[in-house]
Design brief:
Radius of gyration: 21 Å
Strand order of the largest sheet: 1-2
Helix content: 40-55%
Number of strands: 2
InterPro entries: WH-like_DNA-bd_sf (IPR036388)
Structural class: mainly alpha
Distance between the termini: 63 Å
CATH architecture of the largest domain: Orthogonal Bundle
Strand content: 5-15%
């Protein structure tokens, strides 16, 4: 690579790291300290300044919709199906969208939808609606 191409690649990597950090407000300084030791981005992370993060020239990041504070947190080692059923049982009568579970548990949409489909097929949950208006709730006999 030519010197200008290397410089451009380094600049792009630096911008990407800054973007990821700005979109991850939950990160702590301890997280960053750990990453500066054993990350492929150690050099970039170690050279960033607070001013660079605050004034990166990027557009303000849209806040991520927060997790639903009424739903229980996942327990270490607990099966996803059990966690989801605990969430439904903690909110009797409430109909939940898959997106609420995605945000609350930080999982991919398709993962949550697969588990919800399995729970509906096993008779533990009921489902109504299509696409984004689909809602799930605990089946009457569970």
């Amino acid at each position: 690579m030519t010197p200008s191409a290397i410089s451009l690649a380094e600049s792009a990597q630096r911008s990407a790291v800054v973007l990821v950090l700005r979109r991850s407000p939950e990160l702590t300084l301890a997280d960053l300290a750990n990453w500066t030791e054993d990350s492929p981005y150690s050099a970039v992370l170690g050279s960033l300044s607070v001013a660079e993060l605050a004034n990166s020239g990027l557009e303000p990041v849209e806040p991520v919709r927060p997790r639903d504070p009424h739903l229980p947190k996942a327990r270490s080692g607990e099966a996803l199906e059990v966690t989801i059923m605990r969430a439904f049982r903690s909110q009797p009568g409430r109909r939940l969208a898959s997106g609420t579970l995605v945000r609350t548990y930080g999982l991919k949409r398709w993962t949550i939808q697969r588990v919800l489909k399995d729970l509906v097929q096993s008779g533990q949950l009921q489902r109504a609606g299509k696409t984004s208006s689909t809602r799930y709730w605990v089946a009457d006999d569970c």
